[in-house]
Amino acid sequence: MKISAENRKQTILAAVVGVIAVVCVIYMVSQFASSPSAPAPTTPVVADAPVVTPGTPGRPAKVVASSSRLDPTLHMEAMLLTESLEYTGNGRNIFSPNSAPLAVIPKAIASARTGAAAVSAPVFTGPPPPPPIDLRFFGVATKADGSRQAFLLRGDDVFLAAQGDIVSRRYQLKSISPNSIEVTDLQNNNTQRLPLTVQ
């Protein structure tokens, strides 16, 4: 008997679906057989009774639980013993807001200020005065035309300068008279009168 092409495709498809169904059934049976049918009974864990160490007058009693086996039951003797303990520390009780010790602030033994310095306030005197001009005027030379030149001394250096000249790159002569001169310090913009000094 000849199978038509359409029947042949349906037969192959049915065979593939049948094989897949057989594989699924085998897998489910193997999973069901490997899982236990009932859970294994658990053995209750029972702890040893806590060990109570009696206290001495300076030390409270200690309650130590044994960790070899656990017991969920309460032991009232150990609980009452821990409830009867009182806090006996010498510092602050962390469970009481009123037990903070008062801060002691030491008083000063003596005043840090002494004498008139303690009474008088500093007086503002303004900026410091400009430094003195370190030139010495020790003579005048008069030329035939009536112009004058001053003899100036700075340290070991001797200068001969006329009115308007700059001495030592810093000092300018403003005026020259027989008994004094006017000199301007160009760095500080300070003008001073220097008298004639006789050596």
Descriptors for this entry?
199 residues; three-stranded antiparallel beta sheet; alpha+beta; SH3 type barrels
Characterize this entry briefly.
This protein is of the alpha+beta class and 199 residues long. Helices cover 22% and strands 23% of the residues.
Q: What's the structural blueprint in terms of helices and strands?
A:
Blueprint: H1 5-34, E1 51-53, E2 62-64, H2 76-83, H3 115-119, E3 136-142, E4 148-154, E5 157-162, E6 166-167, E7 171-176, E8 180-185, E9 190-195
- CATH topology annotation of the domain at 136-195: SH3 type barrels
Could you say which overall geometry the principal axes of the C-alpha atoms support? elongated
Structural class: alpha+beta
> How many distinct helices?
3
Number of strands: 9
Question: What does the largest sheet look like?
Answer: 4 strands, antiparallel
Question: From the alpha-carbon coordinates, what is the Rg to the nearest angstrom?
Answer: 58 Å
Whole-number average pLDDT? 78
User: Which band does the percent of strand residues land in?
Assistant: 15-25%
> Topology as H/E string?
HEEHHEEEEEEE
Helix fraction by DSSP (H/I, runs of at least 4): 10-25%
Spatially, the strands of the biggest sheet line up as 6-7-8-9
Spans where pLDDT lies below 50 across 5 or more residues: none
Distance between the termini: 159 Å
- Please name the CATH architecture of the domain at 136-195: Roll
CATH class membership of the domain at 136-195: Mainly Beta
Keywords: Membrane, Transmembrane, Transmembrane helix
Transmembrane segments: 12-30
